[in-house]
Amino acid sequence: MRFAPQERTALFIDGANFYAATRSLGLDIDYRRLLDFFSGKSNLVRAYYYSALLDTEEYSPLKPLTDWLAYNGYSLVTKPAKEFTDALGRRRIKGNMDIELAIDMLELAPKIEHAVLFSGDSDFRRLVEAVQRRGVRVSVISTIKTNPPMIADELRRQADHFAELSEIAAEFTRKPADARGRTASREEDPA
């Protein structure tokens, strides 16, 4: 990924999608290192993290992560997840954050030069196209190294640059001997 030191950049992390990709690759993300990595390469204006949370539970396994992110440089965007029972009687949770992410990226587009999207969701293809029309370069970070790939082909093609998560992850994953802040690096599967 190319960055210029003065380039105004924003990160948009689709929490559920990023978690699924990192889990599939067996990665343990260090969110402080992730912020430092992008801050060191560009003028990082904002780092958004999107996650739906279950309000019905007294304790959410996401709570330590979301609390840590909110106090350590991330703009946390959440909404209540919906719990329902599917046709087979299984408990399901739905919490799509696509609209929130799209609105934030479109609103911030006039103030940035580079948007970095951590997601492989094909629904974001049109968003990427719209932001590009506003003169913003868009990089997408996900993976094709899983089976099936975690990124939709149409999103990968639309992006100005696709970064394979497994190839850059060493820059912001937790080192095995690094035990500090363990809860801040893990996100439980929302599904």
Report on the structure:
- The C terminus is likely disordered.
- The radius of gyration is 16 Å and the shape is globular.
- The chain is 34% helix and 25% strand.
- The protein has a single domain, classed as 3-Layer(aba) Sandwich (Rossmann fold).
- The two termini are 31 Å apart.
- The chain is built from eight helices and eight strands.
- It is of the alpha/beta class.
- The strands form two sheets. Strands 3-2-1-6-7-8 form a six-stranded parallel sheet, with helices on both faces. It has a two-stranded antiparallel ribbon with strand order 4-5.
Write the element-wise H/E pattern from the N-terminal end onward: EHHEHEEEHEHEHEHH
Cα-atom radius of gyration: 16 Å
Give the strand tally.
8
- Estimate percent helicity: 25-40%
Question: What low-confidence regions span 5 or more consecutive residues with pLDDT below 50?
Answer: 179-191
Gap from first CA to last CA? 31 Å
Q: Which homologous superfamily in CATH is the superfamily?
A: 5'-nuclease
Describe the largest sheet: 6 strands, parallel
Mean pLDDT: 88
* Number of structurally distinct domains: 1
Q: Structural class per helix/strand content?
A: alpha/beta
What is the second-level CATH architecture? 3-Layer(aba) Sandwich
Classify the fold: give the CATH topology.
Answer: Rossmann fold
Main sheet strand line-up: 3-2-1-6-7-8
Number of helices: 8
- Give the overall form: globular
Proportion in β-strands:
15-25%
Q: What CATH first level would be assigned?
A: Alpha Beta
